[in-house]
Amino acid sequence: MPNYKIAVLSGDGIGPEVMIEARRVMAVIEKKFALTFSCTDANVGGIAIDVDGKALPEATIQICRDSDAILFGSVGGPKWETLPPNEQPERGALLPLRKHFGLFANLRPGICYPQLTHASPVRPDLVVGGFNMLCIRELTGGLYFGQPKYTREENGEPVAVDTMVYKRSEIERIAHVAFRAAQGRRKKVTSIDKANVLENSVLWRKTVIEIAKQYPDVALNHLYVDNAAMQLIKAPKDFDVMLAENLFGDILSDEMGAIAGSIGMLPSASLGNAKPGGLYFGLFEPGGGSAPDIAGKGIANPLAQILSVAMMLRYALGETAAADVIEAAVQKVIQAGLRTGDIWSEGTKKLSTAEMGAAVAEAI
Ligand code: IPM
Ligand code: MG
């Protein structure tokens, strides 16, 4: 019977409370499938700053390294916003974790369930029946990590520099991820760039076109990032796989989350290179943030965290059947009219975080 070692990094804000529900679901999965989880909790983000003096303690990296996958909650909050930017939970923990483990591929499914189209701010006739897209974001390159990166005094005023750098090989590997994902879906890749302005984007587009030749069954089109921001709202159903570099993907995936209804529904997977056998080491986390405004109230939507467990089972552990069961259970509770506050509407039943977790566990 396989035993999977999971590093559990709950973090700050709503992280710990939605993680409890994810663990509840994992306990049910253990009973239903022939597998066990050995979970090790580790501090990350603001809690780690408070307890260990830094956002990403060495001990946490070690626990991650010794695990089969990282299950991540969320980090950050007002308490740590006055620290120097580099030491804050987001820049001090999440970005170094991605870089340290080479997690270059970020998969963010943007699913608007047919029963939840009312929660989308997009005009109802444009989302009727819901939609299902997948954002593939490059996660360890571009403006986030390019050197030089500094702020300094020049001629009597501060000057800030960030550098956008992409190597061809970095574009190739993320393009492969997108085309392979599209093959298992509606076979369409929309590549995002700003090739009318940026050198980076010219190389991006050229490279993606070349990689596309290896996937003749997949249709490829290109959108400038500004136009993409518009098309997401005007025609969300036209998207299947959306491929973007780091910053464009950051921005567009938030927009995607918003038009899908609630960011509290969206899981994500950050993956490195495939291991022999086709599985990945990865970090699995909800698409939303730590939501300090609702933390501790027991009203957060735990579905993104629960669906992140499903992505972990699928991509890191190869437990496809268990992943399917969790995703089906989430659909079942939605179908049954059970809702947390963020997706509630007249005629449906409003549940707390714990009640929603229990409902999914029950549905499994
Ligand atoms: C995300 C977040 C992070 C990012 C922040 C918290 C650094 O917005 O995962 O999308 O920009 O990548
Ligand atoms: Mg973001």
What does this structure look like?
The protein has 364 residues and is of the alpha/beta class. The protein contains twelve helices and 14 strands. The strands form three sheets. Strands 2-1-3-12-11-4-5-10-8-9 form a ten-stranded mixed sheet, with helices on both faces. Strands 6-7 form a two-stranded antiparallel ribbon. A hairpin with a 2-residue loop joins strand 6 and strand 7. It starts with a strand and ends with a helix. Bound molecules: 3-isopropylmalic acid and magnesium ion. The site of magnesium ion has 2 residues, from helix 9.
- CA distance, first residue to last residue: 20 Å
Query: What CATH architecture of the largest domain do you see?
Result: 3-Layer(aba) Sandwich
Alpha plus pi helix count: 12
Taken as a percent bin, the fraction of beta residues is 15-25%
Given the C-alpha coordinates, what overall shape results? Answer: globular
**Strand order, largest beta sheet:** 2-1-3-12-11-4-5-10-8-9
How many domains comprise the coordinates? Answer: 2
What helical percentage do the residues reach?
Answer: 25-40%
- How would you name the CATH homologous superfamily of the largest domain? Isopropylmalate Dehydrogenase
CATH top-level class of the largest domain: Alpha Beta
Order of helices and strands: EHEHHEHEHEEEHEHEHEHEEHHEEH
Q: Major sheet: size, sense and barrel closure? A: 10 strands, mixed
Q: Tell me which ligands are bound.
A: 3-isopropylmalic acid, magnesium ion
Would you identify the regions where 5 or more consecutive residues have pLDDT less than 50?
none
Look at the helices and sheets and give the structural class: alpha/beta
Number of strands: 14
